[in-house]
Design a protein that fits this description.
Strand content: 15-25%
Structural class: alpha+beta
Largest sheet: 4 strands, antiparallel
CATH architecture of the largest domain: Alpha-Beta Complex
Strand order of the largest sheet: 2-8-5-6
């Protein structure tokens, strides 16, 4: 750490006040307009003349944004340019979030950051050339994370495009239409919600036992582990008609409505709450992967749900609406082809997510070492 000094933030930079630019006055093109939490519009003039650090002053106070180009920070922000510091701006933009400015609120009503509080935060200041070296290393590491995020987004977009290419125009393919109720298994309770009212009380949840699935397991449109909820084996025996099975399709019908996921293999015995509609499909007519994508992506399904949901958007789905949802019947071998693509996509996504977690851990470690003089 030769040449490093411990300083206060106020010793090395000044927080300049942003300037008001009402939304109605912005031209909508040109330079980015920054609020406390990022870009809020565009304008044909800029307030700064070069790279700029923007720090939230009101609302999302303490949040740090970095603009490589001139921009207009509005009056809910502070900003830093080369005129307000002798430090390397990319380095400063990276160390500012480490100073926990988001925890310095003293306002009683509207959350805000007092710049004098920010100025008192202490940090280690390396020589200018070392600042530039650190910024360059962290930029390269962050670029790897950005590429992984881009790959994940492209994978999702490719899957959506593939589904619409295969199934987007059922009429021109001469496929028959049915409804969800008719593609479910031919048995009582093939389409069901979870136990209502006194059938299952919150007080009956226990620390371990048979899992109870809820909205949190489905809200991401992929099955995820959620808040642990269990019932005893004895309670399950009384509620076993609500059992979910691998390949069942779950749809949220209360709270955050209109989300959809497939029960994975290996879950074991579980039931669902009243907040979910569970569909056990006749897999000779309709595969879960097709139903899941159709519900979320197909224009016919989306239009039907928007037209028939009660109240606000997707706030009032019920079993009757879901049962009557029109659905085309593509050949099962074509559905199977898509299901295999989905499985391959999931495998690739899992690999990318694991790699992204490793990169995030590596980046955090790199930051810690960089700002403590160990890089």
């Amino acid at each position: 750490m030769s040449g490093w000094q411990e300083v206060r933030l106020g010793d090395i930079c000044e927080f300049a006040y942003g300037k008001s630019l009402p939304a109605k006055s912005r031209t909508g093109q040109g330079y980015p307009v920054y609020g406390s939490n990022g870009v809020v519009g565009f304008h044909d003039q800029s307030l700064t003349s070069g790279e700029t650090i923007v720090v939230g002053r009101k609302g999302s106070f303490g949040e740090v944004q970095y603009s490589e180009s001139p921009c207009w920070p509005i009056d809910t922000t502070y900003y830093i340019t080369e005129d307000q510091t002798d430090s390397c701006l990319p380095w400063l933009a990276k160390i500012l979030p480490q100073l926990r400015l988001t925890e310095l609120n003293r306002a009683a009503a509207i959350p805000g950051l007092n710049r004098e509080d920010a100025y008192r935060q202490r940090l280690f200041l390396p020589p200018l050339e070392e600042q530039k070296r650190i910024a360059k290393i962290l930029d390269a590491a962050d670029a790897l994370r950005a590429k992984r995020r881009e790959s994940l987004a492209q994978l999702d977009a490719l899957l959506q495009s593939t589904f619409l290419d295969l199934f987007g125009d059922p009429d021109s393919n001469g496929w028959e239409w049915s409804v969800v109720e008719d593609v479910a298994e031919k048995r009582k309770g093939a389409i069901r919600t979870g136990p209502f009212g006194s059938q299952l009380l919150h007080s009956e949840f226990v620390d371990s036992g048979v899992p109870v699935l809820g909205i949190d397991n489905v809200v991401s449109n992929e099955f995820r582990e959620g808040r642990p909820r269990f019932i005893t084996a004895d309670k399950y025996e009384r509620l076993k008609r609500y059992t979910v099975h691998p390949g069942d399709v779950l749809i949220t019908i209360m709270g955050t409505c209109g989300r959809c996921a497939i029960v994975p293999d290996g879950l074991g015995v579980a039931i669902n709450t009243k907040h979910l509609c569970c569909i056990s499909l006749n897999k000779e007519l309709c595969l879960p992967e097709f139903m899941h994508a159709y519900f979320l992506l197909h224009p016919t399904a989306r239009r039907y749900l928007e037209d028939n949901a009660k109240g606000a958007i997707m706030s009032g789905l019920n079993m009757g609406i879901i049962k009557a949802l029109p659905i085309p019947l593509p050949p099962i071998d074509l559905q199977d082809k898509f299901a295999k693509i989905v499985q391959y996509s999931k495998q690739q996504k899992a690999r990318l997510l694991e790699h992204n977690e490793q990169l995030t851990y590596f980046f955090a470690s790199l930051q810690q070492r960089a700002f403590s003089g160990e890089l």
